[in-house]
Amino acid sequence: MLRALVLLLALALGGCVLRGGPLPPGGPPGAPAGGPQGPAPGAAAPGTQAPAAPGEPGAPPRPRMGPAAMALLGQARSQASAGEFAAAGATLERALRIEPENPLLWAELGRLQLSQGNPAQAEGMGRKALAVASGDAEAQAAAWGVIADSLRARGRNAEAADAERRAAALAPR
Fold it and tell me: Which among 132, 134, 68, 77 is positioned nearest to 101, based on CA atoms?
């Protein structure tokens, strides 16, 4: 019953999650604008002034995770590693109520859905993460990674390979 409730909430939220380990304090580092889907929002057209670098005035905001969401993310990861998937999902949803526009939390929820064998829900969460990750190449790469893994889990290998290329092009070097 609780698992069904968590799945319904996950479907209603339609989000995504971060690939990899814990985030550094203060959030992920910035990355250059652009990528396989064209210039990032706010990127300068050829022959015009370059966009502001992360941290400079006029730069697009990078997702940062506040202490409450960071604590909930750590708790959810502990719960998931102990096999308490329903509790981990509920904990991530609580973090998303605090920071609903944080792509890293959506990507984490997508990873959780993948680990539970729900690739369709994971893809939706990956796409939600991608939608809210504008201006942050690292968060976009994490979202594309979730999307790639969810597509591959459903046998959509050509689409998964394309998503992996997008993630690799955005990943920090």
Answer: 132
